[in-house]
Design goal:
By secondary structure, the chain is an all-alpha fold. The protein is built from 17 helices and no strands. The chain has helices at about 5-20, 20-35, 40-50, 65-70, 85-95, 100-115, 115-125, 135-145, 150-155, 160-165, 165-180, 195-210, 235-240, 245-255, 260-270, 270-280, 285-295. α1 runs antiparallel to α5 (about 85-95) and α13 packs antiparallel against α14. The two termini are about 35 Å apart.
Length: about 300
């Protein structure tokens, strides 16, 4: 487990710099009361009423504070949160959690009764919550939602899925992100979880979409490239001949990660793009941002 008190102090410091005196006074009261609380009632009340003291304005985090966040917990990126989310996460870290048999039922009830914005805060907080190895089912439950903002709280900018989900749950996360047209480059360290089962599922998905006269996100090929086989030759050629420029760049990036001779030959047929890939000018994150800009997520 990471040093949760230090993470709580870090979140407090961000809020103190960006919130009014009344809000901070209320938060200081909770900081005094909650650690010694023997009943979850005060915790539930504080979590709910935090919205009276903190708004949903984006949290401002400078480069130094970003570095500190990553030092406290690799992959921790609260600059994608708002002030209310940040305050609620601080409250989560204040409540006594040494005994998982008491903490986990308390957290479960919070999830079960949470409104939309509370769910977003809870799922986004997964990487800094205590007893993370016992929250896998909760994270998987969050991925089943059809509410995009809640799904994003689990799937995007969140190191928890990469580190804790098993392969079927991880693959389901990526597939659903593709289906919902979410920006895949925002999935934390997704390159570490690429696997052949996911690749085949995504190829099958692409075939279904094409059969229905629809397109697929170019980012899909990020998860397929290392597992390209000769049987995928027609898929590669189709994308390169019929796709948009972003489609072609994505397929060529996929080819660059493959050892398949056909893939290497196709890549060599586009020397300018091949040079961009070799220089690092063209990469998956940069391409993802271009796609994001085109779709205006």
């Amino acid at each position: 487990m990471y040093e949760l008190p230090q993470i709580a102090d870090y979140l407090f410091s961000l809020l103190v710099a960006q919130s009014g005196a009344e809000s901070i006074a209320w938060l200081e009261q909770q900081k005094e009361k909650l650690p010694g609380s023997k009943s979850p009632s005060a915790f539930y009340l504080a979590f709910s009423t935090a919205s009276r003291f903190f708004d949903k304005a984006p949290l401002s985090v400078n480069q130094q504070e970003m570095a500190r966040a990553n030092g406290l917990r690799p992959g921790f990126s609260p600059w994608h949160w708002n002030r209310l989310q940040t305050a609620r996460t601080a409250l989560l870290l204040l409540y006594p959690h040494n005994d998982p048999d008491k903490w986990l039922p308390t957290l479960a009830k919070l999830f079960e009764t949470a409104d939309l914005h509370e769910q977003e805060a809870l799922y986004a907080a997964l990487p800094v919550l205590p007893h993370p190895d016992r929250l896998k089912l909760r994270a998987t439950e969050g991925l089943r939602t059809n509410i995009t903002s809640v799904f994003d709280a689990v799937a995007l900018y969140n190191p928890y899925p990469c580190e804790y989900l098993d392969e079927p749950a991880w693959n389901q996360l990526v597939l659903k992100a593709v289906f919902l047209e979410r920006p895949l480059f925002r999935i934390y360290q997704s390159h570490k979880r690429i696997n052949i089962n996911l690749a085949q599922t995504l190829v099958d998905y692409a075939h279904e979409r094409w059969a229905a006269g629809r397109t697929v996100t170019p980012e899909l090929w990020r998860f397929v490239g290392p597992f390209l086989r000769e049987e995928h030759s027609s898929d590669m050629q189709r994308v390169l001949s019929e796709g948009t420029l972003l489609d072609r760049k994505a397929m060529l990036l996929a080819c660059s990660t493959s050892s398949l001779p056909t893939a290497r030959q196709l890549l060599a047929g586009y020397p300018e793009i091949e040079a961009e890939i070799e220089s690092g000018e063209l990469n998956w994150d940069g391409l993802g941002r271009q796609i994001q800009g085109a779709r205006n997520y």
